[in-house]
Design brief:
Two copies of one chain form a homodimer. With 140 residues, chain A is of the alpha+beta class. Helices cover 32% and strands 22% of the residues of chain A. The complex binds manganese (II) ion (MN) (2 copies) and zinc ion (2 copies). One zinc ion binds next to loops of chain B. The structure holds a DNA duplex (30 and 30 nucleotides).
DNA sequence: TTGTAAATGCAACAAAGTTGCGTTTATTGT
DNA sequence: ACAATAAACGCAACTTTGTTGCATTTACAA
């Protein structure tokens, strides 16, 4: 884990009025270094030996990071949340791609996930959740 | 539960080469009578006293019905599958609406969930999963 | 340096779904 | 109608993912 990401993580956390703890720094640094959206489990596995972190603490840190809009949660059909850092490009709502073979999830920044859709009378639109499924380049 | 739905259910099950059991008839009849996509739990609750059915049997029956394309499963952000009968209109893939207040799920038959989307090079499209979220007419 | 709320760790809990296996039953052939 | 048999079922145990309560520790500011 690059020291760079840890520095950025620390600044981001501080800037959002949270306590700058080793756990939060480690978690956010992992997500900053990661291309894809990853699960709680995968984050746990990427944590260094030197930073043992309770499952619950990890869940709560992720919750806090999502509240502060530093990361976002991605729903999936395998009943597992995936987490991804909010870079400028996809701070807004956006679509995701999930590989049906390796379960890898990426963000599709250029897909319009914000526009309204036709709904039955009396229904009010809030947002859409769009996941494109298929095979990733590695699995093709 | 209308005897009509039970008759239709029985015929559908038989036509697909499965054993026509009380459980399958009861489950499919419930889904035939239902407008919305409902959860395993909700199906369980709608089962008549006269038809006690083990949770596992219910899961396996739903799995079989989905395999035979008599029903389809809907993913949701609450990590709970919902099930809905396949009427002609939405035998194909289609989008869903979920109320963020009462969690009700309906099928949006007129939304194009089949067309391909632009993906990164080397990625292969299979299908999309689209959930529109908002408030239903009752919750508005 | 110290006080304090915020964050953490641990244990227990909960919901949804799965697996293995012995028993029952719907269906087929006689 | 009866018997054979594979399919379906019921039960218990298990798994995975995530949540809650509470006592303890710690970041940070006064
Ligand atoms: Mn994303
Ligand atoms: Mn549907
Ligand atoms: Zn893949
Ligand atoms: Zn509603």
């Amino acid at each position: 884990m690059s020291i760079d990401f840890r520095n950025i993580a620390g600044e981001l956390i501080q800037h959002h009025g949270g306590r700058v703890t080793a756990g939060r720094i480690g978690i956010l640094a992992i997500l900053l270094a990661e291309q894809h959206a990853i699960t709680h489990r995968e984050i746990e596995q990427r944590l260094p030996e030197s930073l043992p972190l309770d499952r619950v603490t990890l869940y709560r840190a992720l919750e806090w990071l999502a509240e502060k809009n530093l990361i976002h949660k991605v729903t999936s059909d395998d009943r597992v949340w995936r987490y991804h850092v909010n870079r400028e490009l996809h701070a807004h709502h956006h679509a995701h791609f999930k590989c049906t073979r390796c379960a890898q999830v990426i963000c599709l920044d250029d897909l319009p996930a914000e526009r309204s859709w036709p709904l039955p009378a009396g229904y009010r639109f809030q947002e859409i959740e769009l996941t494109v499924k298929g095979l990733c380049a590695d699995c093709c």
